[in-house]
Amino acid sequence: MSRIASSRRSRGFSLIEVMIAVVLVSIGLLGMALLQTTALRAGQSSSERTAATLLGYQILDMARANRSQIARYGAISAADFAAAGDGRAGICAPTAPPVTPQWESDRNAWVCAARRALPDALGSVVITGAAPSAGAGLPANPGRVTVTISWLDNRGIALDDPLFDPRETFTVVSGL
Questions:
Q1: How far apart are CA 105 and CA 46, in angstroms?
Q2: How many CA atoms lie less than 13 Å away from 6 in the CB half-sphere?
């Protein structure tokens, strides 16, 4: 009988073994879930940084294409973003009247695109050293353009942390 009794005891799993296995599998699944949420946050931040990069180079190209009014692009500031609202109203509304000159149209298009692509977007363009030449309207000294775009990126970090700045900033400096 002892042989039959000992073989019955060795069959199957005990309750404690099953519970340990469930705990280990649960820890693994929680780790995978955390990895997934981290990847989603990083993907969204990467997408916004890519949008900021494209927007920075877009306004540079707009300024280069309109060299006769190049100094006007330097007037673009964070105040222009207030007029754009959320990127769908105000100067960005489909019913907004078209503006002239070209630099104002470019400014409105750029500001509206930034407001639609980036949460709470702000930006500015600073042009230094661009002195107009006599005659052709092109700068004698092409100067430098600094484009700065910032947006809110506070995923996963407490806003009440005094060391945390929730705004991401992209800056590009280029010669004209």
A1: 29
A2: 3
User: How many whole angstroms separate alpha carbon 168 and alpha carbon 151?
Assistant: 5
Phi, psi (degrees; rounded to nearest 5) at 87: 95, 5
Tens-digit pLDDT profile for residues 88-108: 877 888 888 888 889 999 999
Determine which helix (DSSP H) or strand (DSSP E) holds 4, and give its type and residue range.
helix 2-9
Contact 123, 78 (CB under 8 A): yes
CA 127 to chain centre: 23
Write the DSSP assignment of 44-89 as a string of letters: HHHHHHHHHHHHHHHHHHHHHHTGGGHHHHTT--HHHHHHTTTTTS
What would the pLDDT profile of 128-144 be if each residue is shown by its tens digit? Answer: 876 554 444 545 556 88
- Provide the pairing of β-strand 131-132 with 139-141: antiparallel
Residue 90 backbone class (left: φ over 0; alpha: ψ -120 to 50; beta: rest): left
- Residue 39 CB coordination number (10 Å): 10
